Amino acid sequence: MQRKAVVLYSSGLDSTTCMAIAKEEGFIPYAISFSYGQRHSLELSVARQNAVKTGAAEHLVVDFDLRLMGGSALTADIDVPKTGVCNDIPVTYVPARNTIFLSFALGWAEVLGASDIFIGVNALDYSGYPDCRPEYIESFEKMANLATRTGVEGISKFKIHAPLISMSKADIIRRGLELGVDYGLTHSCYDPTPEGLSCGACDSCRLRLKGFAEAGLSDPLLYVS
Known about the structure:
Elements lengths: L2 E6 L4 H12 L2 E9 L6 H9 L7 E6 L33 H16 L3 E3 L15 H13 L2 H4 L6 E3 L7 H10 L24 H12 L11
Parallel strand pairs: 1-2, 1-4, 2-3, 4-5
């Protein structure tokens, strides 16, 4: 009998690959996306259009507004940096975002009777976000089993899967293509044009383009330049 798994799905390259991996490992993916006031809300449109196409049995969109707190170029009136990939924690970091996302995923997983949660974080080709590191994932998994009825009563043990965490972006792309991922159905840009073109200069675009270049492939998405 196939087990259910909740997959954090933004429609990005990493989360789409992660969903394909979950499916390949024998799970039935339940995709969860977030409308949190992000300026790159195009990702939600892409997610809604393509979640089922990319393997989800069901797609849940959770709506809340982190613009009330701000503190990030993705949720406040702060310019998205376009001068190169930052080596420090950049202004595109959204305070506590993955903790919030994983908490919603954990709640839905408990309702679904799922013990497995997949998140496409990466600690190699990434922008230095503290909530993408292995020690963070290990800590959240421990908390999940301390903070839920499922964990406390021993019904099952929650597992947070981060299959991409030590992979380069090029290796992620290669793995996705092996699994049949159509990267034309993804979106990564933090600051797309109103027409949906990727800017090609934000951290997310630079890392994506670097990955395709290192894999010797062309990105199927359209860019401003």
